[in-house]
Give the backbone structure.
Amino acid sequence: MDTGGAEKLLLDSIPKLRNEGIHVDILLLEGTEYPFYKELEEKQCCTIHTLGKGNVYNPFLVFRIMPYLKKYSLIHVHLFPSLYWVAIARFLSFSRATLVYTEHSTSNQRRKNGLYRLADRLIYRAYDQVIAISTEVKLLLKKHLRVKDSKFRTINNGVDFERLYEAQPANKKDFNILPEERVIIQVARFTREKDYETLIKSVPYILQPVKLLLVGEGPELARMKELVSTLEIDKKVLFLNIRSDVPSLLKMADVAVLSSNHEGQSLYGIEAMASGSPLLASNVDGLKTLVFGAGILFKHKDEIDLANQLNQLLSDEKLYEETIEKCINRAKKFGLNRMVSKHIELYKELCRKNNVET
Protein backbone atom coordinates (compact mmCIF):
# COMPACT_ATOMS: atom_id res chain seq x y z
CA MET A 1 0.00 0.00 0.00
CA ASP A 2 2.55 2.53 -1.17
CA THR A 3 1.39 5.89 -2.56
CA GLY A 4 0.61 4.96 -6.18
CA GLY A 5 -2.62 5.29 -8.11
CA ALA A 6 -3.58 1.61 -7.86
CA GLU A 7 -3.13 1.70 -4.09
CA LYS A 8 -5.27 4.85 -3.89
CA LEU A 9 -7.93 3.11 -5.95
CA LEU A 10 -8.11 0.28 -3.42
CA LEU A 11 -8.15 2.66 -0.48
CA ASP A 12 -11.20 4.43 -1.92
CA SER A 13 -13.07 1.50 -3.44
CA ILE A 14 -12.89 -1.21 -0.75
CA PRO A 15 -15.17 0.67 1.70
CA LYS A 16 -17.64 1.27 -1.14
CA LEU A 17 -17.65 -2.43 -2.06
CA ARG A 18 -18.29 -3.38 1.55
CA ASN A 19 -21.18 -0.90 1.72
CA GLU A 20 -22.69 -2.70 -1.28
CA GLY A 21 -22.53 -6.05 0.53
CA ILE A 22 -19.38 -7.40 -1.14
CA HIS A 23 -17.04 -9.06 1.38
CA VAL A 24 -13.54 -7.87 0.51
CA ASP A 25 -10.20 -8.45 2.22
CA ILE A 26 -6.77 -7.41 1.01
CA LEU A 27 -3.53 -9.38 0.70
CA LEU A 28 -0.27 -7.42 0.41
CA LEU A 29 3.01 -8.86 -0.82
CA GLU A 30 4.76 -6.29 1.36
CA GLY A 31 3.25 -5.01 4.58
CA THR A 32 5.11 -1.79 5.37
CA GLU A 33 2.63 0.55 7.06
CA TYR A 34 2.66 3.41 4.57
CA PRO A 35 0.07 6.20 5.06
CA PHE A 36 -2.43 4.44 2.74
CA TYR A 37 -2.05 1.25 4.80
CA LYS A 38 -2.78 3.13 8.03
CA GLU A 39 -5.72 4.97 6.50
CA LEU A 40 -7.25 1.72 5.25
CA GLU A 41 -6.70 0.14 8.66
CA GLU A 42 -8.47 3.06 10.34
CA LYS A 43 -11.52 2.59 8.11
CA GLN A 44 -11.98 -0.93 9.53
CA CYS A 45 -13.59 -2.07 6.28
CA CYS A 46 -11.52 -5.19 5.60
CA THR A 47 -9.00 -7.63 6.98
CA ILE A 48 -5.47 -6.77 5.88
CA HIS A 49 -3.29 -9.83 5.27
CA THR A 50 0.42 -9.36 4.60
CA LEU A 51 3.20 -11.68 3.47
CA GLY A 52 5.89 -9.89 5.48
CA LYS A 53 8.12 -6.90 4.80
CA GLY A 54 10.67 -8.37 2.43
CA ASN A 55 11.40 -8.23 -1.29
CA VAL A 56 8.20 -8.35 -3.39
CA TYR A 57 10.18 -10.01 -6.20
CA ASN A 58 10.98 -13.08 -4.09
CA PRO A 59 9.49 -16.04 -6.05
CA PHE A 60 8.90 -18.00 -2.82
CA LEU A 61 5.97 -15.66 -2.21
CA VAL A 62 4.10 -17.91 -4.63
CA PHE A 63 3.88 -20.61 -1.98
CA ARG A 64 2.64 -18.17 0.64
CA ILE A 65 -0.10 -17.00 -1.73
CA MET A 66 -1.39 -20.51 -2.47
CA PRO A 67 -3.44 -20.98 0.77
CA TYR A 68 -5.40 -17.78 0.03
CA LEU A 69 -6.57 -19.19 -3.30
CA LYS A 70 -8.55 -21.77 -1.29
CA LYS A 71 -10.14 -19.22 1.04
CA TYR A 72 -11.65 -16.84 -1.51
CA SER A 73 -13.86 -17.51 -4.51
CA LEU A 74 -12.64 -14.51 -6.50
CA ILE A 75 -9.18 -12.96 -6.46
CA HIS A 76 -8.76 -9.46 -7.93
CA VAL A 77 -5.08 -8.74 -8.58
CA HIS A 78 -3.33 -5.41 -9.10
CA LEU A 79 0.20 -4.60 -10.29
CA PHE A 80 3.37 -6.53 -11.07
CA PRO A 81 4.78 -8.81 -9.63
CA SER A 82 1.46 -9.85 -8.05
CA LEU A 83 0.30 -10.48 -11.63
CA TYR A 84 2.90 -13.26 -11.98
CA TRP A 85 2.90 -14.72 -8.48
CA VAL A 86 -0.87 -15.25 -8.31
CA ALA A 87 -1.03 -16.83 -11.77
CA ILE A 88 1.81 -19.24 -10.91
CA ALA A 89 0.24 -20.01 -7.51
CA ARG A 90 -3.01 -20.91 -9.20
CA PHE A 91 -1.24 -23.25 -11.60
CA LEU A 92 0.75 -25.01 -8.87
CA SER A 93 -2.20 -25.37 -6.50
CA PHE A 94 -4.71 -26.51 -9.17
CA SER A 95 -6.98 -23.79 -7.76
CA ARG A 96 -10.34 -23.09 -9.38
CA ALA A 97 -10.59 -19.60 -7.90
CA THR A 98 -11.74 -16.95 -10.37
CA LEU A 99 -8.92 -14.54 -11.19
CA VAL A 100 -9.32 -10.92 -12.27
CA TYR A 101 -6.46 -8.60 -13.10
CA THR A 102 -6.52 -4.82 -13.57
CA GLU A 103 -4.00 -3.36 -16.01
CA HIS A 104 -3.08 0.17 -14.90
CA SER A 105 -0.49 1.30 -17.42
CA THR A 106 0.00 1.86 -21.13
CA SER A 107 3.64 0.76 -20.90
CA ASN A 108 6.21 -0.97 -18.71
CA GLN A 109 9.74 -2.39 -18.94
CA ARG A 110 8.48 -5.93 -19.62
CA ARG A 111 7.00 -4.87 -22.94
CA LYS A 112 10.46 -3.92 -24.18
CA ASN A 113 11.92 -7.36 -23.47
CA GLY A 114 11.32 -10.30 -25.82
CA LEU A 115 11.42 -12.96 -23.08
CA TYR A 116 9.01 -11.05 -20.88
CA ARG A 117 6.65 -10.60 -23.82
CA LEU A 118 6.45 -14.37 -24.18
CA ALA A 119 6.05 -14.84 -20.43
CA ASP A 120 3.28 -12.22 -20.32
CA ARG A 121 1.28 -14.10 -22.94
CA LEU A 122 1.30 -17.20 -20.72
CA ILE A 123 0.62 -15.36 -17.47
CA TYR A 124 -2.36 -13.34 -18.71
CA ARG A 125 -4.02 -16.56 -19.89
CA ALA A 126 -4.41 -17.58 -16.25
CA TYR A 127 -6.89 -14.76 -15.65
CA ASP A 128 -10.60 -15.12 -16.27
CA GLN A 129 -10.98 -11.40 -16.90
CA VAL A 130 -8.55 -8.58 -17.56
CA ILE A 131 -9.74 -5.07 -16.76
CA ALA A 132 -8.11 -2.10 -18.47
CA ILE A 133 -8.55 1.29 -16.84
CA SER A 134 -8.93 3.00 -20.23
CA THR A 135 -9.56 2.05 -23.84
CA GLU A 136 -6.01 3.13 -24.67
CA VAL A 137 -4.61 0.78 -22.02
CA LYS A 138 -6.69 -2.07 -23.44
CA LEU A 139 -5.61 -1.48 -27.04
CA LEU A 140 -1.92 -1.34 -26.17
CA LEU A 141 -2.11 -4.39 -23.91
CA LYS A 142 -3.88 -6.49 -26.55
CA LYS A 143 -1.29 -5.36 -29.09
CA HIS A 144 1.48 -6.41 -26.69
CA LEU A 145 -0.10 -9.82 -26.05
CA ARG A 146 -1.22 -10.27 -29.68
CA VAL A 147 -4.65 -11.48 -28.67
CA LYS A 148 -8.17 -10.80 -29.90
CA ASP A 149 -10.26 -12.63 -27.31
CA SER A 150 -13.09 -11.01 -25.37
CA LYS A 151 -11.85 -11.35 -21.80
CA PHE A 152 -10.54 -7.79 -21.88
CA ARG A 153 -12.89 -5.14 -20.52
CA THR A 154 -12.58 -1.40 -19.93
CA ILE A 155 -13.60 0.00 -16.55
CA ASN A 156 -12.42 3.56 -16.04
CA ASN A 157 -10.81 4.65 -12.80
CA GLY A 158 -13.09 6.45 -10.40
CA VAL A 159 -12.61 9.41 -8.08
CA ASP A 160 -14.40 10.04 -4.79
CA PHE A 161 -16.01 13.39 -5.67
CA GLU A 162 -17.65 13.74 -2.26
CA ARG A 163 -14.26 13.86 -0.54
CA LEU A 164 -13.01 16.41 -3.06
CA TYR A 165 -16.06 18.65 -2.81
CA GLU A 166 -15.99 18.62 0.99
CA ALA A 167 -12.30 19.60 1.16
CA GLN A 168 -11.40 23.19 2.03
CA PRO A 169 -8.49 24.94 0.30
CA ALA A 170 -5.25 24.80 2.26
CA ASN A 171 -3.95 28.08 3.66
CA LYS A 172 -1.11 29.59 1.61
CA LYS A 173 0.36 31.17 4.73
CA ASP A 174 1.04 27.70 6.15
CA PHE A 175 3.51 27.17 3.29
CA ASN A 176 4.99 30.69 3.33
CA ILE A 177 3.45 31.39 -0.07
CA LEU A 178 3.17 35.10 -0.83
CA PRO A 179 -0.19 36.54 -1.98
CA GLU A 180 1.20 37.40 -5.42
CA GLU A 181 2.64 33.92 -6.03
CA ARG A 182 0.70 31.48 -8.20
CA VAL A 183 0.72 27.89 -6.97
CA ILE A 184 1.64 25.01 -9.30
CA ILE A 185 1.35 21.44 -8.01
CA GLN A 186 2.29 17.92 -9.06
CA VAL A 187 1.37 14.84 -7.01
CA ALA A 188 3.17 11.63 -7.95
CA ARG A 189 5.88 9.22 -6.83
CA PHE A 190 9.39 10.42 -7.55
CA THR A 191 10.24 7.93 -10.28
CA ARG A 192 11.69 8.38 -13.75
CA GLU A 193 8.29 7.53 -15.22
CA LYS A 194 6.77 10.67 -13.66
CA ASP A 195 9.47 12.91 -15.22
CA TYR A 196 9.66 15.54 -12.50
CA GLU A 197 12.82 16.75 -14.24
CA THR A 198 10.94 18.44 -17.08
CA LEU A 199 8.60 20.23 -14.69
CA ILE A 200 11.45 21.49 -12.48
CA LYS A 201 13.46 22.66 -15.51
CA SER A 202 10.46 24.71 -16.68
CA VAL A 203 10.39 26.87 -13.54
CA PRO A 204 13.10 29.39 -14.56
CA TYR A 205 11.11 30.17 -17.72
CA ILE A 206 7.82 30.94 -15.96
CA LEU A 207 7.28 34.69 -16.09
CA GLN A 208 4.95 35.15 -13.13
CA PRO A 209 6.03 34.65 -9.51
CA VAL A 210 5.22 31.03 -8.65
CA LYS A 211 5.61 28.43 -5.97
CA LEU A 212 5.90 24.83 -7.17
CA LEU A 213 4.58 22.22 -4.73
CA LEU A 214 5.87 18.66 -5.28
CA VAL A 215 4.01 15.99 -3.33
CA GLY A 216 5.36 12.47 -3.01
CA GLU A 217 8.39 10.34 -2.25
CA GLY A 218 10.47 7.87 -4.24
CA PRO A 219 13.91 6.97 -5.59
CA GLU A 220 14.26 10.15 -7.70
CA LEU A 221 13.58 12.53 -4.80
CA ALA A 222 17.23 13.19 -3.89
CA ARG A 223 18.21 13.78 -7.52
CA MET A 224 15.35 16.25 -8.00
CA LYS A 225 16.36 18.16 -4.87
CA GLU A 226 19.87 18.38 -6.27
CA LEU A 227 18.47 19.65 -9.60
CA VAL A 228 16.49 22.37 -7.82
CA SER A 229 19.64 23.44 -6.00
CA THR A 230 21.70 23.44 -9.22
CA LEU A 231 19.11 25.64 -10.97
CA GLU A 232 19.08 27.95 -7.93
CA ILE A 233 15.29 27.87 -7.63
CA ASP A 234 15.15 26.65 -4.03
CA LYS A 235 12.87 29.53 -3.03
CA LYS A 236 10.37 28.62 -5.76
CA VAL A 237 10.05 24.88 -5.04
CA LEU A 238 8.62 23.10 -1.99
CA PHE A 239 9.05 19.35 -1.48
CA LEU A 240 6.10 18.23 0.66
CA ASN A 241 6.75 14.46 0.79
CA ILE A 242 3.64 12.29 1.30
CA ARG A 243 0.52 14.21 2.31
CA SER A 244 -2.95 13.11 3.41
CA ASP A 245 -4.52 16.48 2.49
CA VAL A 246 -4.06 16.34 -1.28
CA PRO A 247 -7.66 17.49 -2.01
CA SER A 248 -7.04 20.65 0.04
CA LEU A 249 -3.72 21.25 -1.70
CA LEU A 250 -5.36 20.86 -5.11
CA LYS A 251 -8.02 23.40 -4.17
CA MET A 252 -5.31 25.84 -3.09
CA ALA A 253 -3.34 25.37 -6.32
CA ASP A 254 -3.77 27.58 -9.36
CA VAL A 255 -2.54 24.93 -11.81
CA ALA A 256 -1.94 21.16 -11.65
CA VAL A 257 0.74 19.53 -13.79
CA LEU A 258 1.44 15.93 -14.73
CA SER A 259 4.67 15.52 -16.71
CA SER A 260 4.73 11.72 -16.96
CA ASN A 261 6.44 9.63 -19.63
CA HIS A 262 3.29 7.49 -19.79
CA GLU A 263 0.19 6.80 -17.69
CA GLY A 264 -2.72 4.42 -17.56
CA GLN A 265 -5.46 6.76 -16.45
CA SER A 266 -4.20 9.13 -13.81
CA LEU A 267 -6.33 9.36 -10.67
CA TYR A 268 -4.41 12.44 -9.66
CA GLY A 269 -5.14 14.01 -13.04
CA ILE A 270 -8.87 13.36 -12.64
CA GLU A 271 -8.83 14.64 -9.05
CA ALA A 272 -7.02 17.79 -10.15
CA MET A 273 -9.59 18.51 -12.85
CA ALA A 274 -12.50 17.79 -10.52
CA SER A 275 -11.09 20.10 -7.84
CA GLY A 276 -11.13 23.11 -10.16
CA SER A 277 -7.42 23.20 -11.01
CA PRO A 278 -6.70 23.40 -14.74
CA LEU A 279 -4.53 20.44 -15.72
CA LEU A 280 -1.43 20.62 -17.91
CA ALA A 281 -0.14 17.20 -18.95
CA SER A 282 2.49 15.75 -21.24
CA ASN A 283 1.21 14.60 -24.61
CA VAL A 284 1.83 10.88 -24.03
CA ASP A 285 -0.12 7.61 -23.99
CA GLY A 286 -2.62 7.52 -21.16
CA LEU A 287 -2.81 11.29 -20.78
CA LYS A 288 -3.58 12.69 -24.22
CA THR A 289 -6.99 11.01 -24.42
CA LEU A 290 -7.86 12.03 -20.86
CA VAL A 291 -6.79 15.66 -21.24
CA PHE A 292 -7.41 16.54 -24.91
CA GLY A 293 -10.35 18.93 -25.24
CA ALA A 294 -10.36 19.70 -21.52
CA GLY A 295 -6.95 20.57 -20.07
CA ILE A 296 -3.78 21.54 -21.92
CA LEU A 297 -1.17 19.22 -23.42
CA PHE A 298 2.52 20.10 -23.76
CA LYS A 299 5.29 18.40 -25.71
CA HIS A 300 6.79 15.42 -23.93
CA LYS A 301 10.06 16.26 -22.14
CA ASP A 302 9.95 19.85 -23.42
CA GLU A 303 10.32 22.24 -20.49
CA ILE A 304 10.16 25.30 -22.76
CA ASP A 305 6.81 24.29 -24.19
CA LEU A 306 5.51 23.53 -20.69
CA ALA A 307 6.64 26.97 -19.47
CA ASN A 308 5.06 28.65 -22.50
CA GLN A 309 1.75 26.89 -21.87
CA LEU A 310 1.87 27.88 -18.19
CA ASN A 311 2.69 31.49 -19.07
CA GLN A 312 -0.22 31.69 -21.49
CA LEU A 313 -2.66 30.06 -19.07
CA LEU A 314 -1.68 32.24 -16.10
CA SER A 315 -1.81 35.47 -18.12
CA ASP A 316 -5.08 34.86 -19.98
CA GLU A 317 -8.00 35.02 -17.55
CA LYS A 318 -10.58 33.93 -20.14
CA LEU A 319 -8.51 30.90 -21.19
CA TYR A 320 -7.91 30.07 -17.54
CA GLU A 321 -11.61 30.06 -16.63
CA GLU A 322 -12.60 28.15 -19.78
CA THR A 323 -9.98 25.48 -19.04
CA ILE A 324 -11.26 25.07 -15.48
CA GLU A 325 -14.83 24.59 -16.72
CA LYS A 326 -13.78 22.03 -19.33
CA CYS A 327 -11.67 20.12 -16.81
CA ILE A 328 -14.53 19.93 -14.30
CA ASN A 329 -16.92 18.63 -16.97
CA ARG A 330 -14.40 16.03 -18.14
CA ALA A 331 -13.79 14.77 -14.60
CA LYS A 332 -17.51 14.15 -14.04
CA LYS A 333 -17.25 11.08 -16.28
CA PHE A 334 -15.00 9.30 -13.78
CA GLY A 335 -16.99 8.87 -10.57
CA LEU A 336 -15.98 6.27 -7.99
CA ASN A 337 -19.54 4.99 -7.52
CA ARG A 338 -19.82 4.21 -11.22
CA MET A 339 -16.51 2.32 -11.17
CA VAL A 340 -17.52 0.29 -8.11
CA SER A 341 -20.87 -0.61 -9.72
CA LYS A 342 -19.06 -1.84 -12.83
CA HIS A 343 -16.76 -4.00 -10.71
CA ILE A 344 -19.70 -5.52 -8.82
CA GLU A 345 -21.47 -6.32 -12.11
CA LEU A 346 -18.35 -8.08 -13.34
CA TYR A 347 -17.84 -10.03 -10.10
CA LYS A 348 -21.42 -11.33 -10.20
CA GLU A 349 -21.17 -12.16 -13.89
CA LEU A 350 -18.00 -14.19 -13.36
CA CYS A 351 -19.42 -15.97 -10.30
CA ARG A 352 -22.52 -17.02 -12.27
CA LYS A 353 -20.34 -18.19 -15.14
CA ASN A 354 -18.15 -20.27 -12.83
CA ASN A 355 -21.01 -21.52 -10.66
CA VAL A 356 -19.74 -19.76 -7.56
CA GLU A 357 -21.98 -18.30 -4.88
CA THR A 358 -22.09 -14.49 -4.87
Q: What stands out?
A: The chain is about 45% helix and 15% strand. Residues 336-353 form the longest helix (18 residues).
